[in-house]
Amino acid sequence: MSKVAIVTDSSPNIPQEYIDQYQIHIVPLNVIWDDETYTDGVDITANEFYKRLSESETMPSTSQPSAAIFKETFERLHKKGYQILAILIADKLSGTIASAMQAREELAGAEIEIVDSLSTSMATGLQVLAAAKAAQNGHTLNQCAKIARQARDQSGVIFILDTLEFLHRGGRIGSAKRFVGTLLAVKPILAIEDGEVISIDQVRTHKRALAKIVDILEERTKTAASLRIACLHANDKETASKILNKAKESLSPQQTIFAELSPVLGTHAGPGAVGLAYLTDM
Questions:
Q1: Which of 97, 96, 220, 215 is nearest to 155 (CA)?
Q2: What does the longest C-alpha to C-alpha distance in the chain come to?
Q3: Do 155-280 and 3-153 fall under one CATH topology?
Q4: CA-based angle 165:35:65, to the nearest 5?
Q5: Which residue of 6, 129, 138, 173 has the lowest C-beta tally within 10 Å?
Q6: Where are the domains of the chain?
Q7: Residue 176 has what DSSP assignment?
Q8: Residue 8: closest CA among 103, 79, 114, 133
Q9: CA 282, CA 277: separation in Å to the nearest integer?
Q10: 128-167 burial, b if ≥16 CB within 10 A, otherwise e?
Q11: How far is CA 1 from the centre of its chain?
């Protein structure tokens, strides 16, 4: 039976301990800043990114990995005898899947399955971890892909942003665009559904928004037999710790993961973003 290698991009920012444990292969996206291109999480770390963002008069942009980078990764794994499952940031949010598909077309002999996570950050990461566990336990490529798609259907992410400006400027604001220009009169609660950023609720204060995220998650997962949670933040560990502790008290999850938004996602979310990704019954 062929081995299955799990590939994802850098946007989930899966903690290194899990990458090492499950031998997950990362294809980084890129941050473009002042005519320089940085490899996400490699040439620029989250700490470096958010420090520079707070001081810079210019703003970064992002780009997907090239097809050549995907081809190099796929070819290396194929030569080692692996079948390949790539679980990637939503196609509606990035051109990453298009690059991966182009690379697959150039490697006719390799068995490569590409799954659109329909999300990003640790909502994608939890799908990746579910498939990686299956691969480590000897499941076939088809079985791992099926588990990834099942996890996709049973996962999500709910979050708030300190400002909508970054999301709006990057063109990834979806239905939440109606809140631009409200000058913080409301705090929209956002989610990613079918690969798009949408608004699912709104409150008046940041404190209430944090509590509302846990309330919404509790309602969404109330019938779940098991629950895994990943808390995510953009340079706001203190607030993220508080919301994770509240989620633990209210929901008693089977597993919790603490993750910072990668520089690529920080470009679009901006500093101060916090949220909860979840996966049920896996």
A1: 220
A2: 58
A3: no
A4: 80
A5: 138
A6: 3-153, 155-280
A7: G
A8: 114
A9: 14
A10: bbbbbbbbeeebebebbbbbbbbbbebbbbbbbbbebebb
A11: 31
For 68-99, what is each residue's pLDDT tens digit?
Answer: 999 999 999 999 999 999 999 999 999 999 99
Query: How sure is the predictor about 2, in pLDDT bands with cuts at 50, 70 and 90?
Result: low
Residue found under tokens 């499952």:
85
The answer to whether domain 3-153 has CATH 3.40.50.300 is no
Structure letter (DSSP) for residue 44: B
Minimal CA–CA distance to 70: which of 39, 100, 110? 100
Instruction: Please state which CATH number belongs to domain 155-280.
Output: 3.30.1180.10
Which of these, 35, 40, 36, lies nearest to 64 by C-alpha position? 40
Contact 192, 157 (CB under 8 A): yes
Q: How far apart are CA 248 and CA 250, in angstroms?
A: 6
Sheet of strand 82-88, all strands in order from the earlier edge strand to the far edge: 25-27, 3-9, 82-88, 112-116
* Residues of the chain above pLDDT 90, percent: 76
Q: State phi, psi for 194 to the nearest 5 degrees.
A: 50, 35
**Kind of pairing between the strands at 227-233 and 274-280:** antiparallel
pTM of the model: 0.92
Alpha helices (H) along 88-223: 96-105, 121-136, 141-153, 165-169, 206-220
Determine contact, residues 85/7, Cβ cutoff 8 Å: yes
